[in-house]
Every structure is written in C-alpha cells, then in structure tokens.
Amino acid sequence: IDEKLNSEEQKFCIALKELEEGKDKGHINLGWIYLPYKVGNLSINLNEIKIGDFEFTPDKIVIVPESLFSQIVNSNLEVRTSVSIDPITGAAKEGALFTSEAIPRGTIFYGDLRIHDKSAFKGLLDKVGDLPDYTMLKGALCGSKHFFETLGIGGMTTRGFGRIVLEIRDEDKNCEKAIPNQLNTGKTDPNGGEQK
User: Fold this and answer.
1) What is the pLDDT confidence band of residue 89, given thresholds at 50, 70 and 90?
2) What does the radius of gyration of the chain's CA atoms come to, in whole angstroms?
C-alpha cells in the first residue's frame, strides 16, 4: 500500500468506501483538520486485522498521508487540566495547575513479542537458565491479563488511566499468515542470537 500511496504526490486521504452516498470524493473532519478524501480501490484483507470481538469495516478505515499522521494523533489526544491539592489545607496548591495528555479510550495498540536466544550472554547462562518456550510465555501473559485490565500500566492509574485489554494472537493460527517473512524461526539477529 505504501508504495502505491507514495508514488503519486498524496494530497488526499484514501477512503476504502464511499463516506457520503454517491460521492467518490469529499472532505473528512479529523478534529481541527478538514482533509480532502477520495475513494481508493485498495484491497485490504480485513479478516486478518480482527482483534477479539472488534473488527474493522471498510467505512471505518481512512488512509492518511504519512506527513500528517503524527499531527492527527497529537491533535486527538485528550488533554485534562488538574490541580494539586495541599493535603494539610485541603485546598488547591498555589501554582500547581497542570495538564496531562492521554490517548483516547478505545485506542488499539499492536505489537510483536520477540524472544532472543541468550547465547549473546555467554558468561551469564549458568545464572540465567533456559529460555522459556512459547507456551510458557503465552501462559504467563494469559495468566497476567487481568492485572492489565484492573491495575493498569503507566502513570496516573489512580485516576483511571492505563487500563488495557491484552489480546494475544496465536502464532500458529494468525501471525504467519498476517505477517509473512517476519516470523522466521532460526533467522540470525544482527544483535546476536536467534530470532524466534
């Protein structure tokens, strides 16, 4: 997709489906940015990017120019203003007004879990022990999923930030089809060790 989009001077967003009935181009409102779009004839297998019960539909996907992506993300962060409270007086501290930026609720993060062979740590192998296998790691992640949902990660968890739902896609069923050439068992990593 990137080559096709970058080959032409991209001045438009690409929509996979008509956003307005009967129109193959128009404008889309992304917060403070009002961008022109046109319907593109791109084929994306949406079955491979289904995450749990959530699935993408063509009318929910718009491909934006790479040069605007970071601006769109930054402009859609939630900004909250807070004030520090003096525990002795119970009132707001003087000069303690602050703002924080948060990623909007429902944001989807995607990543890979990579395990590297410990042969690069030759002197430490006796102390470190054997590398856990895939089933052990998946079991540990599945066993700890509820902690991510209740305790959260990052800062300001007492204010409701940082709670995530962890969705693990099984390597044997989805990953090799969805990301060919990325999961190559036995491929040598330039940083030392074997990539699995």
Assistant:
1) very high
2) 23
Answer with the residue of higher pLDDT: 196 or 59.
Answer: 59
Question: What's the token pair of residue 55?
Answer: 């699935």
Angle at 23 between CA 17 and CA 27, to 5 degrees: 85
Structure tokens at 195: 């990539």
Q: What is the largest CA-CA distance in the chain?
A: 68
Structure tokens at 156: 């300001």
Tell me the one-letter amino acid at 183: L
Claim to verify: residue 112 and residue 167 sit in the same structural domain = yes
Is residue 37 packed enough to be buried (19+ CB in 10 Å), middle (13-18) or exposed (0-12)? buried
Q: Six-digit token pair at 49?
A: 């990017």
Six-digit token string for 138: 């998946």
Structural domain boundaries enclosing 94: 77-104
